[in-house]
């Protein structure tokens, strides 16, 4: 509760900074908000009344079950009858259900709070598990006791339930227990602290936003947008439910009187300009009195490695988005920019809400992909193997970034796919591209053979490995994407290319010393590789291989950069890193707030956004300038997820091996495939596609004996 007190300053505003604008909604905002709500309703984001009643009944039944359970184990442990009758346990909810943004068919994140004599291992995962297993209305019961946040998963009367357990240092759990109090963590073990974190964070968020209704509508919008655009998945290195809730809550604090349509627009405006790794915080970070580890880059080296810190408001404050990598941050930053441009177009009546929510064309956006195929002997083994592999995919992204010095970028698809023609099969995809803005030299290649083998070896170290659990990593071109990844099961046809126009030589000052040279450039509609031969006065020949897709995209990016730089001189001023002096940033003039309907200019809002970074929190004042994100691999032995909404762990101490169950026209890269032994032995009769060995940027295609 101390964080909530610190969140409000003398003048009464919520958050660590003053609001950017106190303006109320205009008539246009009201109309756009009505359109947005209609769009969300048509998208099926709201559950029907009968389903809502069914969920409430299930939660009531579950609460009765845990109360029966705690009395049963109390009696079995020899306590007197009076104590047995007073024994109590209580069910809390968190996640999307508690926030009020869940949709039809969504699971319910629940927490069982029990007394000190009800143990997690023997009583919760054994006795309660057996009670649930005997009930006919309970199906698909699966305990995961060794996960970073231990969880029991099951379906209750058709409703999916994720049940955590927190053992408090109390003999009797009062019915009016308030778990938002920091004292509830007294003498609690780490697993209990992590289990309580979801409920505590959810309650704090709802108390730290000025309007819960506007927050909920905006969050529903952003969750749908993130899923459509392929950036909703904590385990894949993007953001999960709690991350999006915190980002939206911060925008609500900065624009406390805005309606949902304006909040969505300002969401993209603010975060398209955000200078990571400056953290997003709803309130100041407090040390607390219990000695629990909090996010503090001044003291904790691992905290300095986080690329996109989004800090939870409940003690102990932690970074909820430590899974984000350089590559996934790049993808999300580009999506924020796209959203900002479309929202500006909507304000000019040049776009509709449907355009903002168009699905991201993942399998059309890259020309080269990594395909990770996994198989198992049966459905239960596949589920365990799948959870383990998913938790390691982020490691593959980090290693590729590290071993190629950040030159080869990965874009993981947040979802998995299954080939129905194969039994117990699942696969994942990663888009590959060369880092933009770097020229390609002849013969330049990325040899990631050792990287792939190292990843496969780490995956096969799974302690619960069983025969039949296999993994293959291979490179495929866009034209060879399997049809089962598409919703209809049929690969869509690409539009025919128009007839190629004759190439014309042009003269340009691109010589080494600025002299004019002739460059033959084909028409922009041509999608083939081309070569520019440039001779300077010394007679040296330079061969530059590029994809015309990449050059046209580069032109567009350059035009956008030039346009943004010409808007104002202030746009050229970089944001401050937390350890830089704020003296170079001008003081922000207070916005006029005499009338809540007075809209500040876009320039004033941009200055206000920049001002957020001019006075950083004391918790981040000494962050280093350069962070080596890959160093996190040296300390993280296991990345585990028990669900997208609330990533595990405030201490981020991972067990090395454990069962994991998870609850999401660029450059041409030419492949060169060589043979390499697979770490996992397969039967001799099995033919498998050879793993990716190297990615080449040469204009000459080299393919040697590719297996199909």
From TrEMBL:
Subcellular localization: Nucleus
Domain Poly(A) polymerase RNA-binding residues, every copy: 362-421
Enzyme Commission number(s) from the entry: 2.7.7.19
Cofactor(s) listed in the protein's UniProt record: Mg(2+); Mn(2+)
Ranges where the Poly(A) polymerase nucleotidyltransferase domain occurs: 15-209
Span of domain Poly(A) polymerase central: 214-358
Keywords linked to the UniProt accession: ATP-binding, Magnesium, Metal-binding, mRNA processing, Nucleotide-binding, Nucleus, Transferase
InterPro entries assigned to the protein according to its UniProt record, in alphabetical order: NT_sf, NuclTrfase_I-like_C, PolA_pol_cen_dom, PolA_pol_NTPase, PolA_pol_RNA-bd_dom
Enzymatic class: transferase
Region (Disordered): 534-603
Superkingdom assignment: Eukaryota
Compositionally biased residues, Low complexity: 581-592
Assigned protein family: Belongs to the poly(A) polymerase family.
The protein, known as: polynucleotide adenylyltransferase
Species annotation: Platanthera guangdongensis
Classification of source organism: Eukaryota, Viridiplantae, Streptophyta, Embryophyta, Tracheophyta
């Amino acid at each position: 509760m101390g964080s909530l007190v610190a969140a409000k300053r003398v003048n009464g505003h919520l958050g660590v900074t003053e609001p950017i604008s106190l303006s109320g909604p205009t008539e246009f905002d009201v109309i756009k908000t009505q359109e947005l709500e209609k769009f969300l309703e048509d998208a099926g984001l709201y559950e029907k009344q009968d389903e809502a009643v069914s969920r409430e009944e299930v939660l009531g039944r579950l609460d009765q079950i845990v109360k029966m359970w705690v009395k049963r184990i109390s009696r079995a442990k020899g306590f007197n009858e009076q104590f047995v009758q007073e024994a109590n346990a209580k069910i809390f909810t968190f996640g999307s259900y508690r926030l009020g943004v869940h949709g039809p068919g969504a699971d319910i994140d629940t927490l069982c709070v029990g007394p000190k004599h009800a143990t997690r291992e023997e009583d919760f995962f054994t006795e309660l598990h057996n009670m649930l297993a005997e009930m006919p209305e309970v199906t698909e019961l699966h305990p995961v006791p060794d996960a970073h946040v231990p969880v029991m998963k099951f379906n209750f009367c058709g409703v999916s339930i994720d049940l955590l357990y927190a053992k408090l240092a109390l003999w009797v759990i009062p019915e009016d227990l308030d778990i938002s109090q920091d004292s509830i963590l007294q003498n609690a073990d780490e697993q209990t602290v992590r289990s309580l974190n979801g409920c505590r964070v959810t309650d704090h968020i709802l108390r730290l936003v000025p309007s819960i209704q506007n927050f909920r509508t905006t969050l529903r919008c952003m969750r749908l947008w993130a899923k459509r655009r392929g950036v909703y998945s904590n385990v894949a290195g993007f953001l999960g439910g709690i991350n999006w809730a915190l980002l939206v809550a911060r925008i609500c604090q900065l624009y406390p009187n805005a309606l949902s349509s304006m909040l969505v627009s300002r969401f993209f405006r603010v975060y398209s300009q955000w200078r990571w790794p400056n953290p997003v915080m709803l309130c100041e970070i407090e040390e607390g009195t219990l000695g629990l580890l909090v996010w503090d880059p001044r003291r904790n080296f691992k905290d300095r490695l986080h690329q996109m810190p989004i800090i939870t408001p409940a003690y102990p404050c932690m970074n909820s988005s430590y899974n984000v990598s350089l590559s996934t941050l790049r993808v999300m930053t580009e999506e924020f920019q796209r959203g900002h441009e479309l929202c500006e177009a909507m304000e000019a009546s040049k776009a509709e809400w449907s355009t903002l929510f168009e699905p991201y064309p993942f399998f059309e956006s890259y020309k080269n992909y990594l395909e990770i195929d996994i198989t198992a002997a049966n459905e239960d083994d596949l589920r365990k193997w799948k959870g383990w592999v998913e938790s390691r995919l982020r490691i593959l992204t980090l290693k590729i970034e590290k071993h190629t010095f950040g030159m080869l970028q990965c874009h993981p698809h947040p979802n998995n796919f299954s080939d129905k023609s194969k039994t117990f099969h699942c696969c994942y995809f990663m888009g590959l591209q060369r880092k933009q803005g770097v020229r390609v030299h002849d013969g330049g290649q990325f040899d990631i053979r050792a990287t792939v083998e190292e990843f496969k070896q780490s995956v096969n170290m799974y302690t619960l490995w069983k025969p039949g659990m296999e993994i293959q990593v291979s490179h495929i071109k866009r034209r060879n994407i399997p049809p089962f990844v598409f919703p209809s099961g049929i690969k869509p046809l690409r539009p025919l290319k128009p007839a190629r126009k004759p190439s014309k030589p042009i003269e340009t000052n691109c010589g080494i010393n600025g002299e004019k040279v002739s460059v033959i450039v084909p028409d922009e509609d041509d999608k083939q590789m081309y070569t520019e031969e440039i001779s300077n006065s010394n007679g040296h020949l330079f061969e530059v291989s590029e994809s015309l897709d990449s050059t046209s995209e580069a032109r567009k990016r350059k035009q956008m950069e030039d346009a943004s730089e010409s808007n104002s001189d202030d746009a050229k001023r970089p944001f401050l890193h937390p350890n830089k002096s704020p003296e170079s940033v001008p003081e922000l003039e207070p916005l006029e707030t005499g009338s809540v309907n007075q809209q500040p200019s876009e320039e004033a809002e941009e200055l206000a956004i920049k001002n957020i970074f001019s006075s950083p929190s004391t918790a981040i004042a000494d962050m280093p300038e350069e962070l080596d994100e890959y160093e996190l691999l040296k300390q993280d032995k296991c990345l585990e997820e028990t669900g997208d909404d609330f990533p595990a762990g405030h201490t981020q101490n991972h067990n090395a091996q454990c069962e994991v169950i998870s609850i999401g026209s660029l450059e041409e890269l030419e492949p060169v495939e060589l043979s390499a032994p697979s770490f996992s032995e397969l039967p001799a009769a099995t033919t498998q596609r050879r793993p990716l060995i190297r990615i080449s940027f040469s204009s000459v295609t080299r393919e040697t004996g590719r297996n199909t």
